[in-house]
Design brief:
By secondary structure, the protein is mostly helical. The chain has 3 helices and no strands.
Length: 63
């Protein structure tokens, strides 16, 4: 593989072949699940910080 883009295309194609039919639409997306309170903290602070910085500033609501 020559680049990150090549890797991503290969990964998506490999993943989508494992899930046939209409339900494989999600293989082109990445998902991240987090506590809703942490999400609100990110939106209120208007920034995505490292874990250490979030803890230092007291912004992490739920570990």
């Amino acid at each position: 593989m020559n680049s990150k883009l090549d890797f991503i295309k290969y990964f998506q194609k490999t993943l989508s072949t494992r899930f046939q039919g209409a339900q494989n639409w999600w293989t082109k997306y990445l998902f991240h699940f987090t506590d809703i309170n942490n999400t609100l903290s990110i939106l209120e602070y208007n920034s995505l910080l490292s874990r250490d910085e979030t803890i230092r500033l007291g912004l992490m609501k739920n570990d």
